[in-house]
């Protein structure tokens, strides 16, 4: 698919993030691929996966694949370096998601330098996982294809909201021309619809669809409060 085709596929759609944390029962590329396939059957317009093995396991699906590589324990750990980004693209991702904040990256390169070098390496689109309006404006200047609200509430620039950061989505929609993907703490269909209404080009949901341990804990907590 061309970049235009990929964006058209995602426009107005739901992207399902299929990730399991290290040590969890579902932490297996085959399992994540099956979860991704189930999401596509349910109507997902795209899939987001973490780790090279998981990306390889879902590469070539009928919907666009957003790939990332979480590595390290520094502030910047979502596809933190140019080499990580190249590896994600080489594993088969249609879209490479990278840390889109203005924080120092482990390899010392700026976001703009990373984007420019990645463009020379691959035709994959680039998604910047941002934490604020200033992040998004800088990422847009760097030339990324998609702006994500993924890191809102996880940097020092914005408070962590109970649900999606609708204010940030609205700010980005008003100030940026690059498509906006709402992501982060979207736990219900109503919240997904609210994110779209706030100006999101597409909506990404992970935990509320693909993380049984967390979903189970929500129900357990509700029953505990009633007892």
UniProtKB/TrEMBL annotation:
Protein name, per record = Putative N-acetylmannosamine-6-phosphate 2-epimerase
Single annotated GO MF = N-acylglucosamine-6-phosphate 2-epimerase activity
Pathway it works in: Amino-sugar metabolism; N-acetylneuraminate degradation; D-fructose 6-phosphate from N-acetylneuraminate: step 3/5
Q: What is its EC number?
A: 5.1.3.9
In terms of Pfam families, this protein maps to: NanE (PF04131)
Q: Which family would the database say this protein is a member of?
A: Belongs to the NanE family.
Q: What does this protein do?
A: Converts N-acetylmannosamine-6-phosphate (ManNAc-6-P) to N-acetylglucosamine-6-phosphate (GlcNAc-6-P).
Protease listed as a keyword: no
- The first-level EC class reads isomerase
**Keywords assigned by UniProt, alphabetized:** Carbohydrate metabolism, Isomerase
Please give the catalytic activity noted in the UniProt record.
an N-acyl-D-glucosamine 6-phosphate = an N-acyl-D-mannosamine 6-phosphate
- State the organism named in the record: Microbacterium foliorum
The question of whether Isomerase is a record keyword is answered with yes
Q: Which InterPro entries match?
A: Aldolase_TIM (IPR013785), NanE (IPR007260), RibuloseP-bd_barrel (IPR011060)
């Amino acid at each position: 698919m061309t970049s235009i085709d990929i964006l058209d596929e995602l426009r107005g759609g739901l992207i399902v993030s299929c990730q399991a944390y290290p040590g969890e029962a579902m932490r297996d590329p085959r399992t994540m691929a099956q979860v991704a396939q189930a999401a596509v059957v349910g109507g997902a317009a795209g899939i987001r996966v973490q780790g090279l093995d998981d990306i390889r396991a879902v590469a070539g699906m009928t919907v666009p694949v957003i790939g990332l590589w979480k590595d390290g324990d520094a502030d910047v750990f979502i596809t933190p370096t140019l080499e990580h980004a190249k590896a994600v693209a080489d594993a088969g991702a249609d879209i490479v998601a990278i840390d889109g904040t203005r924080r120092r990256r482990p390899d010392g390169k700026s976001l703009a330098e990373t984007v420019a070098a990645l463009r020379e390496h691959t035709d994959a689109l680039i998604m910047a996982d941002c934490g604020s309006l200033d992040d998004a404006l800088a990422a847009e200047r760097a030339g990324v294809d998609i702006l994500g609200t993924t890191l809102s509430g996880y940097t020092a620039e914005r408070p962590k909201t109970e649900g999606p950061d609708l204010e940030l989505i609205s700010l980005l929609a008003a100030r940026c021309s690059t498509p906006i993907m709402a992501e982060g703490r979207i736990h219900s269909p109503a919240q997904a619809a609210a994110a779209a209404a706030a100006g999101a080009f597409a909506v990404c949901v992970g935990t509320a669809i693909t993380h049984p341990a967390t979903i189970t804990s929500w129900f357990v907590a509700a029953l505990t409060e009633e007892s």
